[in-house]
Each structure stands twice: as C-alpha cells, then as structure tokens.
Amino acid sequence: MINNIDFKSDKMNEIVLSPKDQPLIQIEAEVISPDAFAGKTTSEIESLKIWQGTRQFDLSEFFDVSGASGENAGDTRIAIDGSVHRTKYIGQEMSGGEILVKGSAGMHAAEKMKGGKMIIEKDADSWTGTQLLGGELKIGGNAGDYLGSAFRGEWQGMKGGFIEVGGNVKSQLGSGIVGGRILVKGNAEQFPGVHMNNGLIIIEGDAERGAGAEMIGGNMVVKGKIHTLLPGFEFVEKVNGIEIEDGKIEGEFLKFLGDFAVKKTVQGNLYAGEVDGF
Questions:
Q1: How many CB atoms neighbour CB 274 within 10 A?
Q2: pLDDT digit string (tens) for 12-68?
Q3: What secondary structure, in 3-state letters, does 190-246 show?
C-alpha cells in the first residue's frame, strides 16, 4: 500500500551545500530549492539571497556551494551535508527534483511543496510540510508540531502527496488535511487529525488525546492505543483489516464514526487497535 521513498535517481545533477555554523538568529532560505537552483552556475547559486531578520545575505554567507545544477528542477538534486536546524523554508513550493538533508531541518521545510522528493535524515522542526500539495517527504527521526497542517486561521491543510515519519510527532498532525497520506511509525501527541476533511493518516504507535477532533471526513488509523477518546465518536464495530484504495491495512481494529460534536451527517472513520477504558 505505502512504499518507501526512493532517493537514488542517478540521472540528476547534484549541488552540495555544506553548512557553516548555524546562526543564533534563524535564516529564511526558501531559495534552497531545485526550482531556484536549476539552470544556474555555482557562482549564481552562491549569490542567491536569504534573509536573517531584516537583513539579506548571499547564500554563500552560510553555505559552501559545489557541484552543478540541472537544466530544470526535475534534473536537480540538492544535498545538504549536515544539520540545518536553524534554517527555515527549505524546499518551499518546490515542484520537482530532490532535496536530501543529511541531518535535521528547521521550521517550514517543504512548505506548500508541489512535487519532487525530500528526505530529512534526522528530525524536522514544526510546520514541516505545511499545506503540502504533492510530492514525497520522508523524515527519518521525529517531527514537531503541525506536520502537514493548515496555517493558523486557515481550514485546509495538506492537499496531496505523501509524508512518512520514522519516529514520533508532536501536536496537531495533519490539521485540516483534505487529501494525501501521512504515515507515522511512532507516536503522536495532542489532536492528530484535528479538523480532518479527507485523506489518510496512519499512526503505528499511540495517540495521546483528541484524535480526529472535529473531523468530518477521511480515515485515521491508530494501530496502537488512543489514550483519551473524544465523546463525539460513536463505536461501530470491530473489523479485521481496513480496505483502502490500493491495498489493505492488516490487523484487528475498533471502528468509530465522528466527530458528532461538530456535524451530524458527515463523519470520518477513526480506527484504533485499542482505546483506554473501552
């Protein structure tokens, strides 16, 4: 059903960014994207502008640049050779190509990503994959709050694509998700799938509290335990396996409909391997 992401295309040109010391004040580097690098020389890439507070700097102020870009985004891979936990907006709105972060990434990585592939080998900070539109994002470690979510004040979060997390996630995973898929191999904290409209969220571990709060559609599967189930969910039946579009999720689950606290006619499906007190 959900396959691992392959980041080993050999037909791409590769630009290597070697980070210098990560600054105390975070930098905003949405130019670190195959779309921005494609068709540019190394010196042109070094001269791309990034923000730190109210000041602009050349990319070369914070990164050594080597290699060669492709003619277009789809032919370009960016390898960041180290952690960039103080660097925000990497891969923002990228439409193709690949980004590999050999460490941790800062806030808003892959924000509004449209296509291509990104892998973060270690941890991802909050707001990663915000309003994802397409493409594939893989996080090897843990992820912060609001992964694949909507921005504050907006109702639609992730609309397409696929996100995989190898570890745990913090609060409000997939807030407002209307499409696409999220797979978390660890645990989720507060309110995963809040305001969920559509799409699929799979949590292989446990969910603390508020799973599916105010959801009106979509499917959420918690293979482990939901520690606190909201009262707006109604038990339907025990099921052996869950059928999805291109396969089946194996296991025995408790199936609930909800959240009836917000809407009586259209509900999402919430599945759990176990629910505390049920």
A1: 15
A2: 999 999 999 888 899 999 999 999 999 999 999 999 999 999 999 999 999 999 999
A3: ECCCCCCCCCEEEECCCEEECCCCCCCCCEEEEEEEEEECCCCCEEEEEEEEEEECC
Cβ contacts of 55 within 8 Å, gap of 6 or more: none
**Residues 217-253: pLDDT tens digits?**
999 999 999 999 999 999 999 999 999 877 899 999 9
Using alpha carbons only, how large is the chain's radius of gyration in Å? 20
State pTM to two decimals.
0.94
- C-alpha 243/C-alpha 263 separation (Å) is 25
Contact criterion met (CB below 8 Å) for 276 and 225: yes
Residue listed under structure tokens 């994802």 = 132
Q: What is the DSSP string of the chain?
A: --PPPP---SSSEEEEEEE-PPPSS-EE-TT-SHHHHTT--HHHHHT-EEEETTEEEEGGGTEEEEE---SSGGGEEEEE-S-BTTEE-TTTT--SSEEEESS-B-TTTTTT--SSEEEESS-B-TTTTTT--SSEEEESS-B-TTTT-PPTT-S----SSEEEESS-B-SSTTTT--SSEEEESS-EEE-TTTT--SSEEEESS-EEE-TTTT--SSEEEEEEEEEE--TT-EEEEEEEEEEETTEEEEEEEEEEEE-TTT-SS--EEEEEEEETT-
Query: Which neighbouring-strand residues pair with 57?
Result: 50
